Predict the structure.
Amino acid sequence: MAAQERDRPWLMRTYAGHSTASDSNALYRRNLAKGQTGLSVAFDLPTQTGYDSDHVLARGEVGRVGVPVGHLGDMRTLFDGIPLERTNTSMTINATAMWLLALYQVVAEEQGADVAKLTGTTQNDIVKEYLSRGTHVFPPGPSVRLITDMIAYTVAHIPKWNPINICSYHLQEAGATPVQEIAYSMCTAIAVLDAVRDSGQVPAERMGEVVGRISFFVNAGVRFVEEMCKMRAFNRLWEKVTRERYGIEDAKQRRFRYGVQVNSLGLTEAQPENNVQRIVLEMLAVTLSKDARARAVQLPAWNEALGLPRPWDQQWSLRIQQVLAYESDLLEYGDLFDGSHVVEAKTAELLAGAEAEIAKVLGMGGVIPAVESGYLKSELVASHAERRARIEAGQDKIIGVNCFDSTEDSPLTADLDTAIMVVDPASERSVLANLDAWRGSRDEAAVQDALARLKEVAATDENLMEATLACARAGATTGEWSFALREVFGEYRAPTGVGGAPVAVAAEPGGELAAVRAAVAATAAELGTGKLRLLVGKPGLDGHSNGAEQIAVRARDAGFEVVYQGIRLTPEQIVSAAVAEDVHCVGLSILSGAHPELVPDVIQRLGRAGVEDVPVIVGGIIPAADAEVLRAAGVAAVFTPKDFGITTIIGRIVDEIRLANRLQPWAAATAATS
């Protein structure tokens, strides 16, 4: 068979941004010079959640997991020397998406760009933030309104822009099965399209333009045959929904357009070199099948389970894409799987399962009622708990973790302190100084007028984009924009899903969970309390709550009374809850890198509150050197991704409680009485 003319490669990106706007600009320029064909901007958590860098909740979070963008000056610096009219930019931003798009547009205008020619994507999927990533700010109703206003504005003014990226990526990270990933993201798309159609902002004859600009951002795990079939099922379902529900006749507008980052959840701290082959397999799932090939791909780095990747690590991931696209013959052929009975059967199975789950959610009134009721979150927590149980039981094999764990010393991690990138603490001070100078140099009256107008518009049905652009031009900050809307819309705390999650691991006689349950009960009796109480807290702005939820569920199943109030708490709030609930242990979960600031603060506040005898344990992406510092500060135990056995962790918590109360460790106590 003769080779066909080569297809154009997909857009190649790396998800990047850290420290300051100037540092990130230098990184973007280097990546583009290496052959990257699009930008993917990672914003820090204060920017994502609508706080200025000097807010109390931003402490320790500034520049950690992305770039801080607090005002128009930061956006100018971020894209200095990068012509936006010729750059395809993806921005992972949700609750504050309208604000960041406004800043981006104003910078493009200042560069002399034709705004109608701007290409790129704002993620802007608030629903998945309620379920998985936790950077939501406003309640569901106002959030959908912000999405609707942005879509209507971009269709009219920035027609090549993707105003929303329906994001199933984080659903998989939160535990979604392939069926749930398809179903819940498709339900979100239906809710968004219904809202745009019903808003009256877009004429019925232009709904095809809306559908044509909807994009998706998906996850691809290591089960690459199943993942490829998932994408084929996604393709078919989108074709059906857009044709039957919205009457879109133009095949080009119905095209399923998606970008992908392959699975970061499956990357391991143990034998991290294995992550390279995992990343390659996951990339194949979204590139091998021409009929379901991603339009943009960004790959994580091999060391993301250890900490922040260095520029060299990101280059390695970019080169993986380039070798496949330019050295292999993949792009010379049509779809490799046409006519495959295996692929067709698996695709049909996933499609049928997704349609059944979609019908269930729509029967509840749609995705928003399903979020508000807690149904979706509970389903994801339960699916994740089942997956973790399979790993712990050895049913799901993770090389280097629960099997084949003997290893040679790795030269990649011989010096752990240099195997990842560490954000210089001076960067935060630089950002704060920049913010203070910005506020001092602007026309304060113009800023206040623009913010007053924003609140006025928010109280009506008028599109919010023009008022947001006026705030950007006047010099308002990210926090000022979001707090103006908080005054009108209020804030929202999403259901945690912990209470409704079923038991995932049975406490079978002789099993590990049964032994831990016995330890919990016996320790409570020895302390003269009805139940041991564990507070699971997430200080700071890190919204990745999957680990905290799984600890909470397993501790509940082991007999603990669990106090879990969800995400985004100050150290003061956590200590207040610990005192009020008279807990026996405080567990802190932080994946953002803010642990050096926040954990010692919690410990010091506990001491001032007179409860210094309550052990504090910490879990998250914590480098070895940081773990030693935390232990020296008084942390009883540190858990990282290599500690995959959740029941074992709960047992360790029991022993830390016993140690803090001068009781023998459980194993020693049982041996002494047997």
